[in-house]
Amino acid sequence: MKTYRISRPFLLIATSFFLITTLISLAFDKTQIHITINSYHHPFADYFFKYVTYLGDGFLFVPVIVYFTYLKNFKKSLFFSFVAVLTLLVTGLSKSLIFPNIDRPLSVIGAEHLHLVEGVKIHTKYSFPSGHTTAAFAFWASLSVFFDRRTGILFCAIAILVALSRVYLSQHFLVDVAAGTFLGILIALFGIRFLNFLNKKNEKTY
User: Fold this and answer.
1) How far apart are the C-alpha atoms of 67 and 71, rounded to whole Å?
2) What are the φ and ψ backbone dihedral angles of 45, each rounded to 5 degrees?
3) For position 163, what pLDDT does the model report?
4) What single string gives the DSSP state of each residue in 102-160?
5) Rg (CA), the chain
6) What separation in angstroms does the CA of 61 have from each of 12, 68, 102, 143?
7) 68 pLDDT higher than 50
8) Residue 135 in contact with residue 60, Cβ under 8 Å?
9) Phi-psi region of 67 (alpha: psi -120 to 50; beta: other; left: phi over 0)
10) Residue 1 has pLDDT above 80, yes or no
């Protein structure tokens, strides 16, 4: 029986990113970290991060689910559906019930002290954890299961860029994306356990 796993390079790089961002967040004040990061900006980075952040949108799950459903690969379709619903529940409950009053950088620091990217709607509430980062790591880690190691590195790079974009765009503090990274990986791991359960159940049927 085939056992599915997250790409090892993906897991290694993502865990390293989580540890680094967590250590920085623990060592320094989150506001000062954000002001320091925000002081480094460039027109190209403004344009790049403005659009790369969409690669962490939860709607990414939809075309993948539709694709596998169209191919009648209901096992993979159910797997991505499970990860998508779990991501929605975890981020929704975390933001609205567990950490409902955490302000975002704009509210804490003020627009006059931040470099803001033109055309980006900046949110002010529900900062912790970063939903885009959670969705990015959950989605790209889950997708890495079906690809080789090199592609796993690419997918992890995409997830990290999404996380960095959330800080660059002043949508989140660094600690928010650290938490999102952890939750996203955890969700993907739960999802893969579910996929392996379906795979085992399917083999027993035959």
Assistant:
1) 6
2) -65, -35
3) 97
4) PPPHHHHH-GGGS---TT-PPP-S--SS-HHHHHHHHHHHHHHTTS-HHHHHHHHHHHH
5) 18
6) 23, 11, 27, 10
7) yes
8) yes
9) alpha
10) no
Instruction: Give the alpha-carbon dihedral of 67, 72, 76, 82, to 10 degrees.
Output: 80
CA distances from 127 to 29, 52, 91, 124 (A): 16, 19, 11, 8
Instruction: Assess whether pLDDT exceeds 60 at residue 205.
Output: no
Q: In whole angstroms, give the CA distance from residue 62 to residue 195.
A: 18
Q: What is the mean predicted confidence (pLDDT) over 129-153?
A: 94
Assess whether pLDDT exceeds 70 at residue 119. Answer: yes
Token representation of residue 31: 């506001």
Percent of the chain surpassing pLDDT 70: 97
- pLDDT band at residue 203 using 50, 70 and 90 as cut-offs: low
Amino acid at 116: L
> Which residues touch 75 (CB under 8 Å, ≥6 apart)?
195, 198, 199, 202
Cα–Cα distance measured from residue 136 to residue 185, given in angstroms and rounded to the nearest whole number: 9
The Cβ of residue 157 has, within 10 Å, a number of other Cβ atoms equal to 13
Q: What confidence tier does 159 reach under pLDDT thresholds 50, 70, 90?
A: very high
